[in-house]
Structures are given as structure tokens and as C-alpha cells.
TrEMBL record:
Originating species: Enhydra lutris kenyoni
Pfam families in the record: COX6B
Chief subcellular location: mitochondrion
Name of the gene encoding the protein in the UniProt record: LOC111139590
Name of the protein in its database record: Cytochrome c oxidase subunit 6B2
Family from the record: Belongs to the cytochrome c oxidase subunit 6B family.
InterPro entries: COX6B-like, CX6/COA6-like_sf, Cyt_c_oxidase_su6B
UniProt topology in membrane: Peripheral membrane protein
Metabolic or biological pathway, per its Swiss-Prot or TrEMBL entry: Energy metabolism; oxidative phosphorylation
Localization of this protein: Mitochondrion inner membrane
Length: 88
């Protein structure tokens, strides 16, 4: 779940994430962070219920498209260390 290096992008066509009215400004930092949180929350919930994490793929694609990989690596390390500031 949290190993970024092993998370390969799904095969197929990658497109730019659609417009999200919650983030109308040019700066997409908050959008990146929110989709990262949404992905990890949803994966955690689906795993707890014993269901497939396939529906989480959308959030994975969006945050991989918007976020610099250095941020993703740092956030993932923080989650593993238990020091991540976000609520997952």
C-alpha cells in the first residue's frame, strides 16, 4: 500500500486530471495533497472491508499526475514512521 517504488502506474492511456471545482486556482498543491489523502484513506477503508482497491485507482492517477514524486516519497516515509500530519 505505501511502497511508492512498487506502485507502478496502471497500463493504458493517462490523461490530465479533470477540473475539480474545489480547487479553481492555478496552484494545484492543495489538490495534490487532498488526492493523496483520499487515495490512502480509501485504500485503508477498502482493505479493512476486504474489498478490491480498484476504485482507488482514480485518486492514485490524479495525485501521481499532480504531485512531485519527492513529496510523495516524503509523505510515504512519514506515514510509515507514524509522523505524517494528515488524518488517514
Amino acid at each position: 500500500m505505501l511502497d511508492v517504488d512498487s506502485q507502478k502506474p496502471p497500463k493504458g492511456k493517462w490523461s490530465t486530471p479533470p477540473f475539480d471545482p474545489r480547487f479553481p486556482n492555478q496552484n494545484q498543491t492543495r489538490n495534490c495533497y487532498q488526492n493523496f489523502l483520499d487515495y490512502h484513506r480509501r485504500v485503508k477503508r477498502m482493505n479493512r472491508r476486504g474489498k478490491s482497491t480498484q476504485p482507488c485507482e482514480y485518486y492514485f492517477r490524479v495525485f501521481h499526475s499532480l504531485c512531485p514524486m519527492s513529496w510523495v516519497r516524503r509523505w510515504t516515509e512519514q506515514i510509515q514512521d507514524g509522523t505524517f500530519a494528515g488524518k488517514i
